Amino acid sequence: MIASFKVISAFLSYPSKELFEAAAELFDVLEGEGLLTEPRLKAVRGFVDDLLAQDVFDAQERYVLLFDRTRSLSLHLFEHVHGEGRDRGQAMVDLMQMYGEAGLEIDAKELPDYLPMFLEFLSLREIDEARDLLGEPLHIISGLKERLKKRKSPYKSLFAALECIAKSSARAEDVKAFLSTPEDDPEDLEALDAVWNEEVITFGPGANSDPNAEDGCPQATEMLNRMMQEPVKAQPKAAHEQVRT
Question: Residue 93 class from Cβ within 10 Å (0-12 exposed, 13-18 middle, 19+ buried)?
Answer without folding.
Answer: exposed
